[in-house]
């Protein structure tokens, strides 16, 4: 009994070059390259009864049941791949997303396939009469040692007319299934059509259009040539020669004779012999042997598969290049082997220097290092610091006060402008502080009057109590310390994340590199612990004057700012008085809804209003003046406190010290024991270095091999050089004098630049002369002198003869040069347009 498949025959579908590439991909997959590459698959497609299964059987020598239509109701996938031992797994892949169903079988004999198909039909629900076709797929995965990847797909035949057991729904089911396979870019399509009947009734042309079959990866298969009518032979042979204009395919056509399942009892070798004999004795002999027969089709498909495989080579090479760069970078981080203390110290010195330079760039905001291109923007340290500072300043201004004064409508006057990027940053980095309590000016004044009465001292009646202003300031600024500490903590965390990521970039990932882990644990951790204590002391130093309220402002600045604030409050009171006086003369005014209301006042009221020196709500203790002093003091102190936290605490005590965490100088001062603790190599590191070196060499070799087989790009037969010069005011509207006088053949003017195609010099010709010397804007639109009837050379101007400079020499237009051959006799005042070095204009 024969086996289900013949591996030697199947491997004929994989060319030697493809086999080598598959071996290469297998080795590369072990280091993470090409693991998700979509390998080519051969898909058989065509009308019902066109002989699709027979074609697949002929090239694979797998007996597909063809007598009862078992294989035409659903798609059958055969996947062959390398494996440690012979193993076959049969399963049904359901189109509705249900888990795949494994099928049972007794062995790997030819007779097992019908049983697998029967089980598949049961799982798909095709046993009854309610359902004729299914989108579910029977998949046979076959592994064997030395087997190269190969995928074959047998699809149901498409049809366009309904019958007793084929409905419109069946047409749509088959069409959707077929279209799904044809649209996959890794599918190599075998379009099968039978050479029987009237060629006008052939449906493959409709199928090409209906399914949008890409002709670039489609090969046509003509079956049943032994049943072709004499009057149809000319058309089908022309089709086989790929000479039918509307049916031309990029991969061409191929002719095969189907096995007669009823009369041909030969084995596969006998089938091939019968086919060869038919072609040799029939009119189909005019078809080249490379385009007819099963064996020739195997060879063509192997080449087509390899060509398809070649298309993914650039993608694989790009992945290999990336992996190679990663290996080289990791090897650079690991450094050379360091068996002694001197090697260890040198290694640490190099890493410290690289780290210091990287940190310096980050602190100064120069993001040129590869580190900043690899990692997200939040590792751009200086940019992050500036955003933190802006956020701290904004939050301190908006939420730093304990209470804020609002109008009678509950809204604050003015307010800081908040930018979109700041909103996003604060959303990601919130400051957990409550909003200020809102109160009106009247409520604030009444409260101050009560407090002033309780805290009166030796001040004269009617004057303010400055101690009350100090106490009010202390209450207003009591959230500053908490907010500043939170800001310092967030900046420190951000800086620490940057340092750790930078150290890993320079030395290696902490998870796999003991040196990085040791540096972070011993050096970096100590640095930030020390900085946290220093920053905490700095914050205490800066907050103490405001907590104790002894930080007196500069006299002049305080007086100017307080006067401006008091004047603004007075002006507001005066405007209110003016409104009332005007209303008294009119007797009415409009409310918010536009209705007239009576606001008239009597003479006594008007007299009190005119001669009042203070708003009635202020009271005898002048709360408005106290509030002005406190707010002025608060505004000046807030500005100073913010600057101190940003510049004297964060910047001076933390940011500017980061670049000194790990330096060549500090490495030079380390004891031998500390150097060993940081840089001594473990066995894992040595093994990793050896593995990386092997992988690097493998990747280099693989790149060289892939470079031999990657698809060629189209290269112009002539090299094009473009000379572009500065524009002049008339560059677009006028030709230069050079073009007018020299009449360069084919030269064109394009927006201030003349474009020439430079042809290679012919044998024995001198090299093409090149323009030299100064080409200035004032010389002309193409950088050459432009007087009306002369050309300036070397400071001389002649009007009788035109000269120009080439290769540092002065030449006269119209005069043959010594190096010019007879064939290059000047024409039109310059040179022959047929000269091999001559520049032909191009747009």
Arithmetic mean of pLDDT = 77
- Specify the overall morphology: elongated
Neighbour order of strands in the largest sheet: 4-3-5-2-6-1-7-8-9
How many structural domains in the coordinates? Answer: 3
Secondary-structure map with pairings?
Layout: H1 7-10, H2 16-29, E1 41-46, H3 52-60, E2 75-82, E3 87-93, E4 101-102, H4 112-124, E5 137-144, E6 150-154, H5 168-182, E7 187-194, H6 204-210, E8 218-223, H7 230-240, E9 253-255, H8 268-281, H9 294-310, H10 313-334, H11 341-364, H12 370-374, H13 381-399, E10 403-406, H14 420-428, E11 437-440, H15 441-454, H16 466-476, H17 480-507, H18 514-547, H19 555-586, E12 588-590, E13 596-598, H20 603-611, H21 623-653, H22 664-668, H23 672-679, H24 683-709, E14 720-724, H25 737-742, E15 748-750, E16 753-758, E17 791-793, E18 796-798, E19 803-806, E20 809-812, E21 839-841
Parallel strand pairs: 1-6, 1-7, 2-5, 7-8, 8-9, 10-11
Antiparallel strand pairs: 2-6, 3-4, 3-5, 12-13, 14-16, 15-16, 16-21, 17-18, 19-20
Helix pairs in contact: 10-24, 11-17, 11-23, 13-17, 15-21, 16-21, 17-18, 17-21, 18-21, 19-21
Q: Quick summary of this structure?
A:
By secondary structure, the protein is α/β, with parallel strands linked by helices.
């Amino acid at each position: 009994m024969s086996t289900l498949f013949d591996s030697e025959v199947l491997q004929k579908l994989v060319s030697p070059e493809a086999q080598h590439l598959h071996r290469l991909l297998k080795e590369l997959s072990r280091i993470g390259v090409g693991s998700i590459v979509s390998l080519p698959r051969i898909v058989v497609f065509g009308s019902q009864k066109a002989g699709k299964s027979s074609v697949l059987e002929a090239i694979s020598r797998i007996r597909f049941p063809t007598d009862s239509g078992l294989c035409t109701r659903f798609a059958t996938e055969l996947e062959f791949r390398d494996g440690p031992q012979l193993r076959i797994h049969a399963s049904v892949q359901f189109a509705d997303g249900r888990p795949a169903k494994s099928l049972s079988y007794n062995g790997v004999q030819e007779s097992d396939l019908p049983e697998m198909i029967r089980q598949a039909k049961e799982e798909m629900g095709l046993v009854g009469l309610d359902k004729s076709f299914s989108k579910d797929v029977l998949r046979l995965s076959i592994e064997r040692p030395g087997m190269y990847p190969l995928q074959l797909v047998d699809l149901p035949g498409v049809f366009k007319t309904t019958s007793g057991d084929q409905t419109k729904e069946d047409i749509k089911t088959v069409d959707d299934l077929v279209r799904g396979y044809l649209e996959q870019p890794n599918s190599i399509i075998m379009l099968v059509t039978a050479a029987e009947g009237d060629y006008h009734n052939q449906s493959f042309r409709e199928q090409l259009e209906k399914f949008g079959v890409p002709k670039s990866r489609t090969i046509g298969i003509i079956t049943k040539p032994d049943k072709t009518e004499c009057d149809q032979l000319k058309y089908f042979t022309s089709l086989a020669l790929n000479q039918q204009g509307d049916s031309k395919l990029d991969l061409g056509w191929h002719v095969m004779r189907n096995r007669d399942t009823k009369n041909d009892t030969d084995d596969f070798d006998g089938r091939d012999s019968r086919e060869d004999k038919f072609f040799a004795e029939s009119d189909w002999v005019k078809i080249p042997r490379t385009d007819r027969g099963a064996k020739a089709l195997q060879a063509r498909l192997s080449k087509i598969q390899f060509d398809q495989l070649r298309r993914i080579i650039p993608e694989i090479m790009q992945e290999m290049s990336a992996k190679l760069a990663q290996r080289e970078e990791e090897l650079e981080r690991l450094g050379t082997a360091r068996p002694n203390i001197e090697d260890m110290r040198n290694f640490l010195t190099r890493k410290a220097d690289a780290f210091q330079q990287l940190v310096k760039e980050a602190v100064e905001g120069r993001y040129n290092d590869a580190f900043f291109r690899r990692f997200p923007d939040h590792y751009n340290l200086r940019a992050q610091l500036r955003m933190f500072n802006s956020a701290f300043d904004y939050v301190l201004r908006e939420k730093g006060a304990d209470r804020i004064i609002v109008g009678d409508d509950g809204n604050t006057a003015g307010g800081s402008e908040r930018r979109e990027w700041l909103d996003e940053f604060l959303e990601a980095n919130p400051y957990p502080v409550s909003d200020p309590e809102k109160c009106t000016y009247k409520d604030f004044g009444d409260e101050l009057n009560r407090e002033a009465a309780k805290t009166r001292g030796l001040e004269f009646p009617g004057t303010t109590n400055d101690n009350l202003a100090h106490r009010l300031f202390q209450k207003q600024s009591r959230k500053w310390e908490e907010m500043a500490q939170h800001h310092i903590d967030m900046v420190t965390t951000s800086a620490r994340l940057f340092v750790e990521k930078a150290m890993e970039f320079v030395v290696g990932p902490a998870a796999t590199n003991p040196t990085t882990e040791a540096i972070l644990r011993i050096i970096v951790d100590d640095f930030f612990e020390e900085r946290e204590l220093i920053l905490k002391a700095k914050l205490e130093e800066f907050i103490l004057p405001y907590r104790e309220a002894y930080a007196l402002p500069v006299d002049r600045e305080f007086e100017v700012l307080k006067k401006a604030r008091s004047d603004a409050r007075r002006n507001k009171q005066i405007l209110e008085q003016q409104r009332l006086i005007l209303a008294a003369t009119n007797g009415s005014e409009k409310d918010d809804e536009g209705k007239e209301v009576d606001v008239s006042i009597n003479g006594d009221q008007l007299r009190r209003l005119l001669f009042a020196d203070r708003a009635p709500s202020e009271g005898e203790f002048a709360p408005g003046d106290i509030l002005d002093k406190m707010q002025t003091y608060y505004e000046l102190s807030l500005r100073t406190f913010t600057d101190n936290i940003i510049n004297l605490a964060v910047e001076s005590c933390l940011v500017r010290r980061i670049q000194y965490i790990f330096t060549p100088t500090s490495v030079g001062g380390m004891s031998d024991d500390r150097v060993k603790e940081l840089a001594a190599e473990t066995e894992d590191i040595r093994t990793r270095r050896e593995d990386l070196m092997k992988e690097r060499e493998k990747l280099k070799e693989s790149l060289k091999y892939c470079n031999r087989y990657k698809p060629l790009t189209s290269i112009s037969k002539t090299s094009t050089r473009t000379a572009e010069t500065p524009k002049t005011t008339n560059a677009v509207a006028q030709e230069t004098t050079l073009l007018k006088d020299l009449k360069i053949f084919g030269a064109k003017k394009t927006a201030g630049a003349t474009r020439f195609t430079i042809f290679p010099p012919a044998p024995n010709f001198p090299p093409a002369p090149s323009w030299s010397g100064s080409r200035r804007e004032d010389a002309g639109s193409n950088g050459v002198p432009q007087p009306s009837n002369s050309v300036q050379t070397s400071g001389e101007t002649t009007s009788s003869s035109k000269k120009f400079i080439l290769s540092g020499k002065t030449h006269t237009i119209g005069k043959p040069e010594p190096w010019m051959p007879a064939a290059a006799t000047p024409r039109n005042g310059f040179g022959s347009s047929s000269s091999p070095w001559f520049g032909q204009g191009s747009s």
